[in-house]
Amino acid sequence: MTSTILSASLAWLVVTLGSNDAAFIPLRDPQGIYWQFEPTAISANGLFVAGAGIEWESGGAALLTWTDQSFQLLTPISSSSNARAVGLSEDGRTVVGYLHVVNGIEGILWQDGNSISLGVGVVPQALSTNGDIIVGYRLSSGANSVAFHLTRSSGQMVDIPLDGFMYSTAVDVSGDGRVVVVVADNPLFQTASNSSIQNQAFAFRWTVDESLVEPIDPLSGGTYFSPTSISANGSVIVGYGDSNPSTYKAIMWTEKDGTQSLDTPSFLDSYAYDVSANGEVIVGYKHVTPISRESFIWDELNGMRLLRPTLEKVFSLSLDDWLLPVATRISADGRVIVGSGISPYGAPEAYLVQLPSFWFEQCEVICDDNDFCTRDSCTDGVCDHSPVRYGDIAPCGGDGTVDIDDLIAVLQAFAGQELCACTP
Q1: Pairing of strands 34-42, 49-55
Q2: Residue 3 and residue 13: Cα distance in Å, rounded?
Q3: What is the 8-class DSSP label of residue 312?
Q4: Rounded distance, CA 393 to CA 398, Å?
Q5: Which of 16, 174, 272, 349 is within CB 3.0–4.6 Å of 284 for a Cys-Cys bond?
Q6: Using CA atoms, how far apart are residues 225 and 351, in angstroms rounded to an integer?
Q7: 14 falls in which pLDDT band (50, 70, 90)?
């Protein structure tokens, strides 16, 4: 396995590395124009990244894409500019986002470098894999917001019905554009008894085929669920919610298991931001102290792991005093992660991580040295290859004890089965 750290000018060499390579890439502008690049969208294949670039001199934020070893500027920069990308098609040809303009917020779509206005008051939040479906919210009368589902090929915009709420937003959409996760708040049905739920988030799942709005329960004992992303297959929704009156926890929802916390019980907050296409890999950040935070990566086999120690201990990457406080997006296959970091020089700087194809397997699989005379184990991300005890032969590789299983292995050898024996 090869571990690589690349300069910004070679950042997209990552896509040509072998399937078992790990790499950490700072996403910095080689010309030094932008003070900070904030990645907010990634294509399903992980080859394209979009986000906001903050200029050194003016402090304005422009919308940028990153690919082919360089930035591409999609919006002009000035001291008053403020732009954000929210979605990328898999081929990188379509970017959707919004601009802050004089009379409000204007939704914008970029296709092959050409900009198309979606209208003032139309605020996109996500894009389907092929770039045909846009979801978000539109501002209605009385400054209320209404979640929408827009099909570009037909020009049809459909409001997602959530009666009883002042504000609703479609925050993400499945890869095929057929399943939408919606968040709503400020219920219109507030009374003296439920006034405490004002400004709290309520999550819903809406399907195009059935036009069905399905409420999603918060954590047991919690009062709300603020969703941030849905898997491309539409099966998993992630976000954060309260587990007690003073703590937020990264959470996930599946139709089978409902809503569950990804974090261990504590008084430190955590937030899930994105999920792979199959729903098996989740990224976000958690507080490790009340004032410091670190990116995490979660999968069912290994649970929540801090990203930086995993890169250093499991994949032997040297991060040279980099801090990785936030992981924001992940590719469809769960192998490419982008986020906001702090460089060794103390400057805010975006990063990209590529992981090997087998990274999410059990630690013992990652640490397998293909020698059945060592016992392969992993503790806190560090591989251990201690020798197998003499006589400990069943199963091959040893189980840590010399016992009846080893005697059975010897007897089976007389029946023609291969005997794995290690010398003392």
Answers
A1: antiparallel
A2: 13
A3: I
A4: 5
A5: 272
A6: 28
A7: very low
pLDDT category of residue 101 using cuts at 50, 70 and 90: confident
Task: Tell me which residue of 297, 298, 341 sits closest to 321, measured CA to CA.
Answer: 341
Burial class (CB in 10 A: 0-12, 13-18, 19+), 197: middle
Beta bridge partners of 91: none
Residue 401, pLDDT > 90, answer no
Question: For 152-176, what is each residue's pLDDT tens digit?
Answer: 999 999 999 887 788 899 999 999 9
Nearest in space to 74 (alpha carbons), one of 56, 49, 104: 49
Of 307, 55, 56, residue with least CA distance to 64? 55
| pLDDT at residue 297 in the model | 94
Phi, psi values for residue 40, rounded to 5°: -125, -5
Tokens 């296959």 — which residue? 333
For the chain, how many residues are written?
424
Distance of CA 109 to CAs 33, 75, 112, 224, Å? 24, 11, 10, 32
| φ and ψ at residue 403, rounded to 5 degrees | -150, -165
- Return the half-sphere exposure (C-beta side, CA atoms, 13 A cut-off) of residue 153: 6
- Pick the more confident residue, 77 or 309: 309
Q: What six digits make up the tokens of 99?
A: 């601009």
3-class DSSP state of 320? coil
Mean pLDDT (whole number) for 62-86? 75
- The radius of gyration computed from the CA coordinates of the chain, to the nearest angstrom, equals 24
Q: Is the CB of residue 280 less than 8 Å from the CB of residue 360? A: yes
pLDDT 10s digits, 189-218:
444 444 444 457 889 999 998 777 899 999
Token readout for 34 is 């932008």
Cα–Cα distance measured from residue 306 to residue 65, given in angstroms and rounded to the nearest whole number? 27
Q: Cα dist. 121→97, 100, 146 in Å? A: 12, 10, 11
Read off the pLDDT of each residue in 75-82 and give the average, rounded to a whole number.
69
Which residues touch 68 (CB under 8 Å, ≥6 apart)?
12
What percent of the chain is predicted at pLDDT more than 70? Answer: 71
